[in-house]
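User: Can you help me understand a structure? I only have the sequence.
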Amino acid sequence: MKQLFRYGYIFMLVCCLAGCATGSRDSRTDKLQQANALRQLGEAYLGEENYTLSLSKFLDAEKLNSKDYLLQQDLGIAYMAKGDLEAAVRSFKKALELKPDYASARNNLGAAYFAMEDWDAAIESFELLTKELLYATPHYPLANLGKAYYEKREFDKAEQYYQEALEKEPGFANALYGLGRTYLRMGEVEKAVEYFERTTEAAPLQPEAYFDMANAYRLLGDVEKARAGYSRVVALSPKSSLAKEAQQALMDLE
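Assistant: Let's start by predicting it. Here is the structure, written out as tokens:
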């Protein structure tokens, strides 16, 4: 009888532990579902550019599930939008710790370093990204490398990476414009004009390209084309500080 009681007690204990384990699993599942719902709500606010509310929802989700690489990416984007670049870097790095091949987080980490003007760290991120064979848009990190080297005034390397970006995507306006600026800084004004012209064909609503193209034509002594470029800047962005500079340049050409 005692043996039966002992076996019965063990059976009840096993059932109890199984029930507790099931309850624990259910609790974890509930937390994950709540975290996912909060993340999706935060993403909706992010899409509406309500960065304060989106960050609030992401932080609530993180309390429930800090190991969601998508959530860490979202947190990084929200922190960047709020101007907290160091927090953005931490979140993007955490996303990469959780998923080392997460190319989007790698790209955003580079962008955060860019915003911090930490060119070397940006270069490291973008160089790693160019090695991702399955990355669908390799021309983006290549052009970003070009821009980073441009900011470092290493114009030969800037030219190299912009050209590599154009080999991947010949009509990529960012690389075309970057090459124009690079050649202008290198004193190759005619080449700069060529790439600014190609930029305005690929991105006809980009006032900065018209402004730099006008400056280049001015250096070449082509007043009419310079005037046309400055006028286009004013037409595209009449209330901007760039338009004021263009208007002043037009007055100087009179």
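Now, to help you interpret it: Confidence is low (pLDDT under 50) at residues 1-21. The CA atoms of residues 96 and 102 lie 6 Å apart. Let me know which part you'd like to focus on.
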